[in-house]
TrEMBL record:
This protein is one of the early assembly proteins of the 50S ribosomal subunit, although it is not seen to bind rRNA by itself. It is important during the early stages of 50S assembly. NCBIfam families: rplM_bact. Belongs to the universal ribosomal protein uL13 family. It comes from Desulfomonile tiedjei. CDD domains: Ribosomal_L13 (cd00392). One of its GO terms (molecular function) is structural constituent of ribosome. PANTHER family: LARGE RIBOSOMAL SUBUNIT PROTEIN UL13M (PTHR11545:SF2), RIBOSOMAL PROTEIN L13 (PTHR11545). Signal peptide: none annotated. The keyword Ribosomal protein applies. This is Large ribosomal subunit protein uL13. Gene3D superfamilies: Ribosomal protein L13. The gene is rplM. Keywords: Ribonucleoprotein, Ribosomal protein. GO terms for biological process: negative regulation of translation; translation. Part of the 50S ribosomal subunit.
């Protein structure tokens, strides 16, 4: 018996829209990572990018449970000594709501070139409008 593997030309990519309004951040990130990897398809292969495109709208209205809004901290480092900066989730959600979701999804993808390629298929918008109408995206319920 031979193991079947999908060819690059056989992979059919769809577009999905996820509305993040009043949805929990972790649940959105987990489902988005699943779609980006292609695990919802029968032709999933871990060594290939078989996933679909995901558009997330209303990113500024995402919900964090418990006290995460006040206690969760995001860190960035410039690479220089003393270059560590920290930002609370509340401030990050107010200023850059797309980055909160992107970091959550990025943590759930593989840490290699395939994971980075899959992350480029994620489009996040703070409000309910997006410029991808021509792709005819399907609504995805979480």
């Amino acid at each position: 018996m031979k193991t079947w593997t999908p060819k690059l030309g056989e992979v059919e990519r769809k577009w999905f829209v996820i509305d993040a309004k009043d949805k929990v951040l972790g649940r959105i990130a987990a489902e988005t990572a699943r779609i980006l990897r292609g695990k919802h398809k029968p032709q999933f292969a871990p060594h290939m990018d078989t996933g679909d495109f995901v558009i997330i709208i209303n990113a500024s209205k995402v919900r964090l449970t418990g006290k995460k809004l006040q206690q969760k901290v995001y860190y960035t480092h410039s690479g220089y000594p003393g270059g560590l900066k920290s930002t609370k989730a509340e401030k990050m959600l107010a200023e850059k709501p797309d980055r909160v979701i992107r970091l959550a999804v990025r943590g759930m993808l593989p840490k290699n070139t395939i994971g980075r390629a899959q992350l480029t298929k994620l489009k996040i918008y703070a409000d309910d409008t997006h410029p991808h109408i021509a792709q005819k995206p399907e609504s995805y319920k979480i």
